[in-house]
């Protein structure tokens, strides 16, 4: 496990990349997308930097487009890639639910709720007859009929967090419940509706990480890919056919293991990727191990954020750690979550 001082240093490294207007790019001057900005904001909340996390969420809310989406990429506040990706839209719900669990900031929830509602209304509009959700909008505004498994697993978590937020603010959205049910069925029972990206490790563990696949099925899924993707002592391959381990994927596997109650195994994966840690607490993205070469040569906020979120989930004492360590908390009535939060 990381020490508390190490986690604080990593949170400080993320905060150092944040722009004055709240934007959280991959690194100062680099690209920004909504999904990774939310990931980094969650890590700030874990580290007690709630004002910074709120500023990041407010930055996103101010740039949400009328249809509920964000551009696929920004740089220095300007749109670089205008396309609409469904998982980018949905992830704000996870961040706001996580932030409320972390801070109890009901004012932030009220302020961001309209953005969450617009985003998840867009996501449900992009659902395909199979129950899967198209990965992007075409130029004519219709959903692309290609569905990506990792993105859909993330959207399953997003919809469930959105449903919890809807209950929290007293505005139930039964259409989101229906969308989550159909999506969960597709993820568990109809893998053929998703594009074949099985060489990517994220497609292996993400349905477990987000609570779409649980119990024995989750254990069997993790066991089936372990020998393909896990490199002992180094972490997780990003893709099966390349000698390249990446920090974020390793920490996400740790989150999936934590969701299965395997905290010792999760801690072992977190320990394995510490060769990517820099002196200031930031993290290199990955390592090509035959060459002992860091690649790409960048230290990203989202890699550091994945480390913080994994450490928090494994520790099990943080108020928001259950978002990843216990996805089943979303099955409880929100009144029980409020009471448990104290």
Count up the domains.
1
One letter per element, helices H and strands E, the order comes to: HEHHEEHHHHHHEEEHHEEHHH
In the CATH scheme, the class would be Mainly Alpha
Give the integer mean of the pLDDT values: 97
CATH topology: Glycosyltransferase
InterPro entries: 6-hairpin_glycosidase_sf, 6hp_glycosidase-like_sf
Protein name: Prenyltransferase/squalene oxidase-like repeat protein
Organism: Modestobacter roseus
Verbal overview:
The chain has 14 helices and 8 strands. It is globular and about 50 Å long. Strands 4-5-6-7-8 form a 5-stranded antiparallel beta sheet. The model has no long low-confidence stretch (mean pLDDT 97). A hairpin with a 2-residue loop joins strand 2 (73-75) and strand 3. 55% of the residues lie in helices and 6% in strands. The protein has a single domain, classed as Glycosyltransferase (Alpha/alpha barrel), CATH 1.50.10.10. The two termini are 27 Å apart. The chain has helices at residues 4-16, 34-46, 50-63, 86-103, 106-125, 149-169, 174-189, 201-209, 215-229, 247-259, 263-272, 301-315, 322-325, 334-341; strands at 31-32, 73-75, 78-81, 230-231, 235-237, 244-246, 286-288, 293-294. The chain is α+β, with helices and mostly antiparallel strands. InterPro entries: 6-hairpin_glycosidase_sf, 6hp_glycosidase-like_sf. This is Prenyltransferase/squalene oxidase-like repeat protein. It comes from Modestobacter roseus.
């Amino acid at each position: 496990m990381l020490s508390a001082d190490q986690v604080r240093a990593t949170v400080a490294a993320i905060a150092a990349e944040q722009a004055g207007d709240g934007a959280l790019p991959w690194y100062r001057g680099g690209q920004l997308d909504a999904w990774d900005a939310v990931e980094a904001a969650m890590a700030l909340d874990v580290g007690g930097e709630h004002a910074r996390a709120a500023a990041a969420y407010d930055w996103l809310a101010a740039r949400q487009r009328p249809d509920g989406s964000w551009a696929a990429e920004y740089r220095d506040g300007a749109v670089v890639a205008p396309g609409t990706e469904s998982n980018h839209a949905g992830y704000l719900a996870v961040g706001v639910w996580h932030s409320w669990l972390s801070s109890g900031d009901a004012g932030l929830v009220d302020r961001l709720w309209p953005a969450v509602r617009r985003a998840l209304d867009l996501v449900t509009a992009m659902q395909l007859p199979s129950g899967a959700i198209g990965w992007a909008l075409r130029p004519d505004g219709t959903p692309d009929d290609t569905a990506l498994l990792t993105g859909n697993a993330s959207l399953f978590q997003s919809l469930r967090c959105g449903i919890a937020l809807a209950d929290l603010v007293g505005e139930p959205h039964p259409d989101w419940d229906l969308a989550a049910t159909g999506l969960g069925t597709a993820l568990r029972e109809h893998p053929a509706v998703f594009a074949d990206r099985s060489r990517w490790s994220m497609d292996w563990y993400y349905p477990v990480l987000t609570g779409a696949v649980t119990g024995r099925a989750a254990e069997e899924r993790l066991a089936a890919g372990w020998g393909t993707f896990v490199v002992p002592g180094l972490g997780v391959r990003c893709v099966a056919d390349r000698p390249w381990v990446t920090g974020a994927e390793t920490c996400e596997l740790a989150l999936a293991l934590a969701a299965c109650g395997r905290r010792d195994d999760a801690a072992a994966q977190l320990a394995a990727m510490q060769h990517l840690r820099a002196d200031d607490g930031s993290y290199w993205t990955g390592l090509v191990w035959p060459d002992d070469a860091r690649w790409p040569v960048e230290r990203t906020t989202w890699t550091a954020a994945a480390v913080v979120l994994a450490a928090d989930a494994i520790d099990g004492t943080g108020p928001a750690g259950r978002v990843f360590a216990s996805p089943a908390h979303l099955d409880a009535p929100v009144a029980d979550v409020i009471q448990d939060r104290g």
